[in-house]
Structures are given as C-alpha cells and as structure tokens.
C-alpha cells in the first residue's frame, strides 16, 4: 500500500471498503470520492473534517482548560489553602514553609493543578479567614454559665515580641470539661501589671465574654501577673505546678554538689 502522505490521515483510517474512510473521532464513514482506486481523493475527507472544526476546537479548549493551573480564588484552590493554613496552625509550622521547595514538590505531585500562594497570602488572607471562622467558639462559650482561664506571658528566642495567652475552660451541659485556646496577644510594651490587665480586659471583650462569667484566672506567681489580676479585679490563683517547680528548683540548687556538677559540665 502506498504511503499516506496527507495529514488528513491523522484523522481518518481506511475502511474495509477502500471507497470509504472512517473518521477517528466520530467513527463516521466518509466517501473518498471517485469510482475507482485511481480516482480516490482526500478532498471529500477535508470537506467533512471542516464541518467538525467547532467540535474540535471545543475539545482542544477543554483539554487546555483541564491542564491549566487552578485560579487562586477557585473553590478547589480555596479548599487546599484552608487545609494548609490549618496545618500551619495545628502543627505550629512557620508560614515560610509554604515557599519551601520540598513542600511545593509534594503538592505538585498530589495535585498538579494547584499552585501554592506565597507566605504573604496566607498571612493576610487565609489565616485571618480561619481565625474568623474559629470565633464560632463564641457560641459554645455563650452556653457556659461560668468560665475559668489560664494565662501566661511567654517569649521566643527568635522574636523580640512576647505573647500573652488566654485559654478558656468550662463545663458543658453534659458535664464534660471543655478547653479552648482563644488568643495569643502580642505584648510589645513593658510587661507591667497595668498593661497586662488592660490586655486581659481587651481579649475578653474581643471574645464577647462578660466579666460576670469569669470564675477564676490561673497564672504563674510572677509579681506583675498577680498585680494585673488584682488591678482587673479577677479572682486569681497561682499555678500549683509552677509553684511546685520553683520549690524543686530551689531544693536542688541549695545543694552544693548540684552546683559543682553544673560548674564542671
């Protein structure tokens, strides 16, 4: 058989009855024209193919659409954005992780259409959106008659900003203990009792918790925390575990042998 030179044969195959060719896409028989092998042409095939150009274009467009990356605001992208934001929060991962090469490779393997945004997008958009959604816990807190709180000021070796935490504890209608970490407020000013008291007041207002629901606040025994609770007129008690730790520490360091061992180390 002679070699088929025309590109038309990328769309057709010769039928058993050589007078016809079969269109690959629609499996339609199309006459090759003429009355004998010598008079067959591809003109009729080309003519038939042009009738289906719109369909071919549509197929090509659909294929291209399927291969395109999802838009950042696509519902599928938003679903993945949210899961990544939750992962960063739950696993205490740095926001810079979303720009790591290895992390991007994993995402590309799992879902080639997903393009991970940069750190700023998660900081400015996704994390605040998740936080707003988490404030639904206000509805649960609203059902509690009384709420106790634990709080502490803590700092990181990689940041100059300290954080004041606020965790709520209450018993629900079925007498099950519930705890929720509500807030970590940046403390950029001096850690004075007055300032901590003001921050505590603001956090409670932000979470729509009235003062008459505050049962007791537990913190360490630092003088500024004690003063803050007194200034804010909150019932306060020093953390027993913290007090015990201080006793153990003092009990160890009054022993000369312990200090000698540490000095040698």
Per-chain topology:
Layout: E1 12-14, E2 20-23, E3 28-31, H1 43-50, H2 53-67, H3 75-90, H4 101-110, H5 119-134, H6 137-142, E4 147-150, E5 153-154, E6 162-171, E7 177-187, H7 193-206, E8 214-219, H8 223-231, E9 236-238, H9 240-253, H10 256-264
Helix pairs in contact: 3-5, 7-8
Please describe what this structure looks like:
It is a single chain. The protein has 3 domains: 7-66, no CATH class; 75-134; 138-253, Nucleotidyltransferase, domain 5, CATH 3.30.420. Helices cover 44% and strands 18% of the residues. The protein is built from 10 helices and 9 strands. A hairpin with a 5-residue loop joins strand 1 (12-14) and strand 2. Helix 3 (75-90) crosses helix 5 and helix 7 (193-206) packs across helix 8 (223-231). The termini are far apart. 12% of the residues are buried.
């Amino acid at each position: 058989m002679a070699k088929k030179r025309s590109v038309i044969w990328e769309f057709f195959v010769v039928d058993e009855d050589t007078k016809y060719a079969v269109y690959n896409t629609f499996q339609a028989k199309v006459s090759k024209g003429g009355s004998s092998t010598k008079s067959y042409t591809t003109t009729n095939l080309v003519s038939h193919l042009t009738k289906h150009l719109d369909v071919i274009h549509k197929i090509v467009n659909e294929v291209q659409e399927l291969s395109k990356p999802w838009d950042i605001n696509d519902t599928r992208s938003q679903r993945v954005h949210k899961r990544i934001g939750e992962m960063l929060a739950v696993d205490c991962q740095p926001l810079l992780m979303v720009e790591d090469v290895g992390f991007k490779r994993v995402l590309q393997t799992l879902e080639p259409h997903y393009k991970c945004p940069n750190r700023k997008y998660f900081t400015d958009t996704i994390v605040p959106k998740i936080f707003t959604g988490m404030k639904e816990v206000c509805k649960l807190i609203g059902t509690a008659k009384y709420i106790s709180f634990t709080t502490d000021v803590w700092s990181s070796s990689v940041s100059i900003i300290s954080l004041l935490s606020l965790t709520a504890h209450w018993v629900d209608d079925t007498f099950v203990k519930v705890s929720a970490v509500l807030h970590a407020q940046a403390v950029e000013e001096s850690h004075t009792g007055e300032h901590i008291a003001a921050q505590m007041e603001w956090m409670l207002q932000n979470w729509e918790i009235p003062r008459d629901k505050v049962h007791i606040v537990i913190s360490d025994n630092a003088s500024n925390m004690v003063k803050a609770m007194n200034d804010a007129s909150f019932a306060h008690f020093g953390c027993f575990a913290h007090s015990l730790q201080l006793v153990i520490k003092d009990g160890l360091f009054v022993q000369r042998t312990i200090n000698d061992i540490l000095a040698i180390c």
